[in-house]
Amino acid sequence: MYKYMLKTLRQWNETRDERRKLQAGYVAFALLAILAAGLIALVDNQLGQKLAGFAMLAIGVYFVNLIAWTLLDGLVLVHLKKPTVRNRAATSTRRQSARR
Questions:
Q1: DSSP string covering the chain, please?
Q2: Residue 69 falls within a domain, yes or no?
Q3: pLDDT tens for residues 22-77?
Q4: Is 3 a member of any domain?
Q5: Which of 21, 47, 88, 89 is the residue whose CA sits 20 to 30 A from 81?
Q6: At what angle do helices 18-41 and 45-71 cross, to 10 degrees?
């Protein structure tokens, strides 16, 4: 079981980019904070509510980050992508034939 979990975590680490890992961290923190807030609220109601507020803050940061990255990907990064090697060769061939 332990080896399987390590294998799964390594595979997840290799297949995900830094942005997705950060987003997963926000969600994991929020879920753990909500769970802890519920348990702590059984003992100290006011402290549990404060911890739940931190969880809501993490969820808010998650959504702001999600919207910012979506806009960045959709509006900016599309125009910054460089052509592949094959496209560069085709472009240079077209330019040479246009010059003739």
A1: -HHHHHHHHHHHHHHS-HHHHHHHHHHHHHHHHHHHHHHHHTT-HHHHHHHHHHHHHHHHHHHHHHHHHHHIIIIIIHHHPPPPHHHHHHHHHHHHHHH-
A2: yes
A3: 888 888 888 999 999 999 999 999 999 999 998 899 899 889 998 988 888 777 76
A4: no
A5: 21
A6: 160
How many domains does one find in the chain? 1
> What type of residue sits at position 54?
F
In a domain, 91, yes or no: yes
Q: What is the pTM assigned to this prediction?
A: 0.62
Q: Contacts for 30-38 with beta carbons within 8 Å, 24 or more apart?
A: 30/55, 30/56, 30/58, 30/59, 30/62, 31/55, 33/58
Domain containing 38 equals 17-99
Torsion sign, CA atoms 65, 67, 69, 72:
negative
Here the tokens at position 14 are: 């290799």
